[in-house]
Design brief:
about 400 residues, alpha/beta, eight-stranded mixed beta sheet, about 35% helix, binds flavin-adenine dinucleotide
């Protein structure tokens, strides 16, 4: 038997983008369904979960969902730098707890959450515009009719692909990590490890979660490198490379694997009755492949814009465009600048990485944070590109300053 439902807004994908869209849309009073294919929200973790305290506060994420980070250590084959701070500016999220909190916030304001629903088809009207989705649920075929649909399916972009609007991402990051207990770790300090032995295109990391738990991982840029991140992760742990040695005995608790788009903001994100958010929209900072705060922030914008459009009974691409305008104004030029730095970093040899760390050593804490967060404010960057006392740093900022 086929189950059939009618909603104002159907959000496909219960990650941070989907839950955040469902939250603002349901809060504005429209009828919202959030559909997730797994058995529960965040059943599988596909992310390292690093984000920024500023964003955590903006979103109201509870304090018990993260471990705060004060210090940032970088290691290259023959160099090391630690940028220290007296206050915590970054955080490693308890991903499951945070994503479930986001979904629960949506549920509390009235969104209906459906799990074990694998959406694999779109329903179109005579103009070829999307008017619903269908898939399989615990009881067989299931159909959702909707005025607007949100593609929040992440890297897979299931809805946009089924509509024929996008094809598979060709440039992306692949990452593998263990969540593990270790003997020794400073819970205030994260580690980024660069150089050929860690990964030929990307970086490796140690992110502490508190209670002697860490996430140790390897990210690899595709198609730049053909190496398998899982294999490389096992090798660097076995060789006890760099700061991994200091961790002592490593006892894995859980394995995580994921893919993240790295093509800049190449996709159009509104169509008639359809919005793309989060990874399906490619909203990630390419420098450190960071997308959670954008997924939440612009998910919330998408939910508001979609509900306004539904209430005004006009849901074509023009009515939904304020969403695209909002996120492009907020991050487009920053992401382009971050892409330029990434292009420089992806080609560095071990010797050049050693030198790059000397440049990073010259950055003040705030400059480093702006840099790694891709928060390249125009006046700030122009000032630094002209006035920074160190030539090498001036050259680095020249690279990112906007024309
Ligand atoms: C290895 C790795 C490390 C990362 N580390 C960080 C980090 O430290 N900090 C950071 O900010 N970002 C990080 N990211 C990026 C970050 O995880 C993403 O940007 C973010 O998860 C995007 O959220 P989303 O909601 O768009 O997609 P997702 O989190 O991928 O959620 C998509 C959801 O849709 C569901 N879904 C998919 N297909 C269907 C379907 N057909 N039917 C129903 N449901 C479906 C999925 O099960 C999933 O729950 C990392 C990514 C990777 C791969």
């Amino acid at each position: 038997m086929t189950e059939e439902y009618n909603y104002d807004l159907v959000v496909v994908g219960g990650g941070p983008a989907g839950s955040s869209t469902a939250f603002t849309a349901a809060k504005s009073g429209i009828k919202v369904a959030l559909l997730e294919k797994e058995n529960s929200i965040a059943e599988t973790v596909r992310t390292s979960g690093v984000t920024w305290i500023e964003s955590i506060k903006e979103f109201g994420i509870p304090d018990n969902c993260y471990n705060p980070i004060k210090n940032f250590s970088f290691v290259s084959p023959n160099n090391e730098v630690t940028i220290s701070n007296s206050i915590a500016t970054a955080a490693v999220l308890d991903v499951r707890k945070t994503y479930r909190w986001l979904a629960h916030e949506a549920e509390k304001v009235g969104a209906d959450i459906f799990v074990k629903i694998n959406i694999n088809e779109v329903i179109k009207n005579e103009n070829n515009d999307i008017i619903g989705v269908s898939g399989t649920g615990p009881n067989g075929k299931i159909i959702f009719h909707s005025k607007v649909i949100i593609d929040a399916t992440g890297f897979a972009s299931v809805i946009s692909k089924a509509m024929g609007f996008v094809t598979q991402w060709e440039r992306f990051g692949a990452g593998a990590e263990y969540e593990a207990t270790v003997e020794n770790i400073d819970p205030d300090t994260w580690w980024l490890m660069v150089g050929q032995e860690y990964t030929p295109a990307g970086y490796a990391w140690i992110f502490p979660l508190g209670n002697n738990i860490v996430r140790i991982g390897v990210g690899v840029g595709k198609p730049e490198s053909s190496i398998d991140p899982t294999q490389r992760l096992k090798e660097i742990i076995e060789k006890q490379l760099g700061p991994i040695k200091k961790l002592g005995k490593i006892t894995p608790i859980e394995f995580h694997y994921g893919l993240i788009p790295n093509e800049g903001l190449s996709r159009k994100t509104v169509y008639n009755n359809l919005i793309l958010v989060g990874d399906s929209a490619g909203q990630a900072n390419p420098l450190v492949l960071e997308g959670i705060r954008y997924a939440i922030k612009f998910g919330r914008v998408a939910g508001k814009v979609a509900s306004d459009a539904i209430k005004n009974k006009k849901t074509d691409k023009d009515a939904l465009y304020p969403y695209e305008e909002n996120w492009r104004n907020a991050i487009e030029s920053k992401i382009k600048s971050a892409g330029k730095v990434q292009d420089r970093w992806i080609g560095l040899s071990d010797k050049e990485w050693d030198k790059e760390l000397d440049i990073i050593k010259e950055l003040k804490t705030e400059e480093f944070l702006d840099f790694i967060k891709a928060d390249f404010g125009l006046s700030n960057m122009l000032k630094l590109a002209v006035n920074h006392p160190k030539l090498a740093v001036r050259q680095l900022f020249n690279l990112v300053k906007r024309k």
